[in-house]
Amino acid sequence: MSALPRISLKAEVTEHLRSVFLNKEVLAAVGLQEAELRFQKLLTCLSHPPSYTCVRASTHLAPLEDIRLRLEEELKKQQKWISSPEQPSIHVAPHPRITDVLLLPVDGPRPVEQLSSEVVVGAQCGSAVLRGAHVFAPGIIASPKYMKAGDMVSVFSDLEGRCTRGATSFQGNKVFVGNGVAEMDRSAIFATETPARGVGVQMVDPLYQSPSFDGVLPSLVFLQNLPSVVVGHVLAPRPGEWILDMCAAPGGKTCHIAALMGDKGEVVALDRIQNKIDRIRQNAQMLSLQSIKAYCFNSTQAVSDEPKQEAKGPPFPPESFDRVLLDAPCSGLGQRPNMASTWSLKEICSYPPLQRKLFQAAVRLLKKGGVLVYSTCTVTLAENEEQVAWALNTFPCLTLQPQEPHIGAEGMLGAGLSPEQLCLLQRFSPEVNWDQIETTAPLAFRADRDTIGFFIAKFLKT
């Protein structure tokens, strides 16, 4: 059900995406009308949150059922589902195929009445609210002139980033995301001497109702999009292996790989930004994972020119790793909910060259007989299927491999790949079934289809 406007993009980006989704191969397969319909669905579903929340459970620390029961208990204590007396029962369900995933339904869109007192937040903050977050003070851009802690307010997301910080009202392009209670006075939120921290508005009646996981069982549950969890299972790490996560921040996949290995072996995590590496180390410590070694390093330069040296840190000799995950930097156009993007077409198209540099390093660092998994959270051909076609032409040593689990769709037409090759790829395409999934369908059925946009390819090096 459409409750929000479609994603706001620059006109040149919209036209570029239309040319992608209406390419010659797609038009020959499904026709103009169906291709255009799918493209319009994509623009609409990207602005809406998935109909469930996905949680990865730390099954290396406790059995899944124990974590499920504890999570249900904690969420019932919160009693933050809806503000009306009729609260729905909280039910956390295990995914039937993915053994460390728990699913929770999202209730929405809900009939929420807008109030006269309005708080305006940034687009990123508004998207977080649609997935169950409260409003943290740094995300607040405007509030009523005399707002005090305890006031009931309606929260709106500024789609185009045009609201001036500290404004008392805003009449621009904004979207209502729900009602909440102010936790701070306006003067504290916009104090110039000491920047405000913590929750600024606690959401009590959101448009989409899902639990807040702030501080909930931090060592046992990790909020992660379902396709991101699938990536770790597709990589299929084994105890004792040496594995490289080339673009590791924020570290969810790194920690998942280490957990799947039983914390036996070594997972090398690289990222260019030091505070992101610090965060990975903190997460590893919180999850009691000793096998993760994180380094601040540019992965395009991770291959050493000295092939015989013993390297404890980057750069590494060629053919060092049993498995490599390249979760590549990308345009991020598959993320949901995303109500607005201000990126230019030049920015969108800047990623493929970087991805190829990283891919070249990944192939060099991978042992013969090793596995390389390439993934993105975007929907473009240039960053997904076209990169696979380029890789297969550039590196004869690589062959595509089946993926397990394979719960997404096959690859998208348009890059000249064969039907057999497309079947080996995994593209999560929420636009295909977005408005056709019955709310009464089993949660796992909805979860596998109502995802973020995501892409996975698995290669073997021979």
Automatic annotation (TrEMBL):
SUPFAM superfamilies: PUA domain-like (SSF88697), S-adenosyl-L-methionine-dependent methyltransferases (SSF53335). Pfam families: Methyltr_RsmB-F (PF01189). InterPro entries: MeTrfase_RsmB-F_NOP2_cat (IPR049560), MeTrfase_RsmB-F_NOP2_dom (IPR001678), PUA-like_sf (IPR015947), PUA_sf (IPR036974), RCMT (IPR023267), RsmB/NOL1/NOP2-like_CS (IPR018314), SAM-dependent_MTases_sf (IPR029063). The keyword RNA-binding applies. S-adenosyl-L-methionine binds at C247, A248, A249, P250, G251, G252, K253, D271, D327. The active site is at C377. The keyword S-adenosyl-L-methionine applies. It comes from the Eukaryota. Residues 146-462 form the SAM-dependent MTase RsmB/NOP-type domain. Keywords: Methyltransferase, RNA-binding, S-adenosyl-L-methionine, Transferase. Belongs to the class I-like SAM-binding methyltransferase superfamily. RsmB/NOP family. This is SAM-dependent MTase RsmB/NOP-type domain-containing protein. It comes from Characodon lateralis. The lineage of its organism: Eukaryota, Metazoa, Chordata, Craniata, Vertebrata.
